[in-house]
# Entry
Amino acid sequence: MANVVPLNNHAHRALCVQAGAAARYGDNQRFVPVIVGEFPHLAVHYPILLTKDRDTGAFFIGAMLGFDEGENLFLDARGMESYRPLNLQRGPFFTAGNEIAVDLDSPRIDESGKPLFTETGEPTQYLQSIMALFRDLKPGLEVTRTFVQTLIGLKLIEPIDIDLAFDDGSRRNLTGLYTVNQGALRALPDASVLDLFRRDYLQAIYLMIASLKQVPVLARRKNNALLKASAALAGA
Amino acid sequence: MSKPIKNIVIVGGGTAGWLTAGVIAARHQGRIQQGTFSVTLIESPNVPIIGVGEGTWPTLRTTLEKMGVSETDLFRHCDAAFKQGARFARWTTGAEDDGYYHPLMLPQGFTQVNLVPHWLEDERGKSFCDAVTPQGALCDEGLAPKMITTPEYQAVANYAYHLDAGKFAPFIQKHCTMKLGVRHVLADVQSVNMAENGDIKSLATEQAGEIAGDLFVDCSGFRSLLLGKALGVGFKQCNDILFCDTAMAMQVPYETPESPMASHTISTAQSAGWTWDIGLPTRRGVGYVYSSHHISDEDAEAELRRYIGPQATGLTPRKIPIRAGHRETFWKNNCVAVGLASGFLEPLESSAIVLVELAAKLISEQMPANREVMDIVAARFNDVNHYRWGRIIDFLKLHYVLTKRPEKFWQDNTDPASVPDRLKNLLHLWKYQPPWFFDEFDRIEEVFPAASYQYVLYGMGFKTEVMAGDNSGTRSSAASYMNENIAMTRKLRTQLPKNRDLVKKIHEYGLQPI
# Structure
């Protein structure tokens, strides 16, 4: 259960937070919501795809980190080796209005973690970096929502079926994922293209398209993990 | 050179008029935008809309999608809910537990193998419906036919809508006038000006002067102002086959706003007819369709109130006459009738709106290029529509002929003199072979496919002899389809939300277009 309260330097003066990436802290996610501003960092590592919120049906964009529930193929004992999406970086923090809030029940709340405040109650460098993160993330969510609405409005979204056979004989058939419809993109009238360009959406669209090339790379990573697991099983 | 058909004039602003306008205008949008084609709808500011039919067919999804209507808007503006078919309660024996479904999904593997003889050979303790499709079970549990993540108009289980007909016409009107370029004229038609060849030349209206056109669509309701009155086309009654001639309707509030909402129409046999029970998000539409020769209005009202229970207290029923039958011809000269102007049958299988859709589609797809070829299209249209009305009458009658109920209304219905010859022959044939593909229901847009006949026949306990050894060639494939059905039923029951919950979510979040 989450217990989210606004952060303040009296009640939470001594609070420490584990900032690193680990499965036990919740970094074991196969699909993490992202914002448009992150696309250049993401596209060189992960497929950037759309999916629908199970509860509302609304589209959102995320980075695909794995194939199975709770699988982040970029996570190891040392943490996350490549760019860590803001939604993972933010750890146990949220925004409530202009305030920063913290989930006191998060497993990241841990005495051996990083302090949030100095002894005099000033935010530490770590907390400052979280505050900076939200300065990107908060408006970024709005920008990203508008971007998604624009894609829907221009009928630029199409479903993508990812059906893979791995060397250990298992298969993964992922449904409910969507990407940019390149045929529809090419067929857009000039005025729409110019509008997309002026709003910096065209670059985001092309980054999403380019990131599709990360699907086979991710599959290779998964394949290696599966082979390692079955080799370990055979060895035992 | 023959006169080109460029200006379509529709008379009547009910569901039939606006749907027809929308279908034609969407199909010919290119020419409308060029200014070389027009659709005008004339609606009397003084005539109330009858608003028949709150039940629809899955075809409406395609019809609305092609018109460019958003399904989310339909739910939000027309008090719409999902409909996955109908349950016919007490039609066979009248017992408390007597009932069967006519679902909207085809039996599993319908195009590959006929499951009927296999089910007849071994029912495995299941009704025919439950043996061949998950939909009956979904209805039993009040589940929706899709999820919030399923795109607009797409289905997990095939579905149609229950909707508020009084809200539907204005909703389509708005779409037609704002998005599709349909001209809306509020005026009363005073007289019809005829040409020498018997065509309609123009309409004289009280408020908008003379309105000329090349093709006139009569959607004026029971009055049939153009085809019936002006062109003198007669009406062919079929009350010798279908006896119900009156409907009494009530709008029943739910006990609480959260009361479960059925995702199918509940049609319950009564002493001299049957009641419909349709769940909309805000209320139930309930009505009694009966034969006034078999029951008085007072007794019918009492029976309707008994069916509804305490919720009927304080409600006043609305009485609607049913004149079962259709025009002798549907398209004559340059005038074609759609909707009530073309005919009406009791709403036992919600055929009213689907007939409008099919007629409008045929008119729009076959829109004659000029007056010279119009008669060819008209002859075709008449042939198809005679076939359709005939098959619907047969199919409605099928629900009555297999009854074992003792009341006079029901016994009169089984009188062979009241059964059309074609249906009689089929019932004879089906004693020895179950209906399937090669059973004459082979038109491109067949209103009721052979599957519908299967659901009704075997839902009502009809027996078809299965010849020993006849099933052996298809037994393994039939078994695998029936097993598939069990697996699919299990999966959908865990996956699908409650009907009311999904409708609420659609109001709140909307469905995605893809």
Remarks:
- Chain B touches chain A at residues 147-150, 505, 508-514 (CB under 8 Å).
